[in-house]
Design goal:
- This protein is α/β, with parallel strands linked by helices.
- It has one domain: Rossmann fold, CATH 3.40.50.300.
- Helix content is 56%, strand content 8%.
- The chain is built from 16 helices and five strands.
- It has a five-stranded parallel sheet with strand order 2-3-1-4-5, with helices on both faces.
Length: 347
């Protein structure tokens, strides 16, 4: 056994010398939680759970702020249990941890791998701990799933097959615009020289950009935005329908802005919350009047965002050039049709 470990370490060292870095050991496959275990764990953590997914810059934060106004519902931001590495599974992904949790001499595991129960109990405790303090009985997390896309749904289903999944979708063209300015403001250290020149030029003279004469995107950045959005919303929606059925609900960001109470009541009913009261109507109106993200961006980069209408529908119409439109149409046009943003490809 010792000799085998020595050989393994020598092999890893040789690969590191040859390739310049050591290769990370493969993550073990964690089994899904069983139905009987779900019933048992809910005796300890009985609250109903839900998760909000969506592409980045699609209104997940606004939806969270509104959903948790209900006196029975709590939601908070970005635990990233299933949507960003190292993931919830990282708690048990080490092969040695897996061997310990499934060891036959461990009489506490009833002859099974305890990993799924450990993951479920950890997440349940994190969620219910705060919900209890807030006096709520339904609790959820919102985490944009842009990085792992439909895989995030599969990872969620392994631990929470009994939970509910809410997906919010926004017009991919507006998503691209919003994400572009977020990059300009909060991630300028990751921008290329061409990106930085566009940023500086827009801050100095935005008029040609709003006239459609100049693009806020490089061809590479626009292509990345279109491909990423179309792939995420298409595949996330498909896998969510397959795995969750009537425990899956989607809404469009634009519909939430246009008819907030209609959309919120639909979500609250889906989550199992009680009816909407007059005080809740007032709370929703008050929350919609706020825009913390816009306030922050104005404080940090007023020269860039001053000419923009934050969070509005259709901002892409004044900022896309003809070539931007054509490129987005070619890469994500069908997804726009599928989600009801266009009737066809003539736009």
């Amino acid at each position: 056994m010792m000799l085998g470990n020595v050989k393994k370490r020598i092999g890893m060292a040789a690969r590191a010398l040859r390739n310049g870095q050591a290769q990370a050991p493969p993550r073990r496959q964690v089994p899904p939680i069983q139905a009987a275990d779900v019933l048992e764990v809910k005796a300890f953590f009985p609250m109903e759970k839900f998760f909000i997914f969506g592409h980045a810059r699609s209104g997940t934060t606004l939806l969270t702020r509104l959903v948790r106004l209900h006196p029975e519902v709590h939601c908070n931001y970005q635990a990233h249990f299933f949507t960003r590495q190292p993931l919830l599974e990282g708690l048990v992904s080490d092969p040695g941890i897996g061997e310990w949790l499934a060891r036959r001499s461990n009489r506490w595991n009833r002859g099974q791998d305890l990993s799924p129960l450990v993951l479920r109990a950890a997440a349940d405790f994190i969620l219910e701990r705060e919900a209890r303090r807030e006096g709520k009985r339904i609790v959820g997390d919102k985490s944009p799933n842009s990085l792992l896309e439909e895989e995030s749904v599969r990872l969620m289903h392994k631990v929470y097959p009994d939970a509910r999944l809410v997906l919010i979708v926004r017009d991919g063209r507006d998503v691209a615009v919003s994400h572009r300015f977020q990059q300009f403001i909060d991630a300028s250290q990751h921008l290329s020289g061409a990106d930085l020149r566009i940023r500086a030029d827009f801050a100095r003279q935005p008029e040609p950009y709003f006239a459609g004469d100049r693009s806020i995107f490089t061809p590479k950045s626009l292509r990345a935005e279109a491909v990423s959005w179309a792939k995420n919303v298409t595949q996330t929606g498909r896998v969510a329908r397959e795995l969750y059925g009537d425990r899956y609900l989607y809404l469009r960001y634009e519909d939430l802005l246009e008819s907030p109470l209609v959309e919120l009541e639909r979500i609250w009913i889906f989550l199992g919350a009680g009816p909407v009261s007059p005080s809740l109507v007032e709370a929703v109106a008050s929350e919609l009047a706020r825009n913390p993200d816009a306030d922050w961006q104005m404080h940090k980069a007023g020269d860039l965002v001053g000419p923009l209408e934050k969070g509005k529908r259709g901002s892409w119409r004044s900022l896309f050039t003809a070539s931007d439109r054509q490129a987005f149409k070619e890469l994500a046009g069908q997804a726009l049709v599928d989600w009801g943003y266009e009737q066809g490809l003539e736009w």
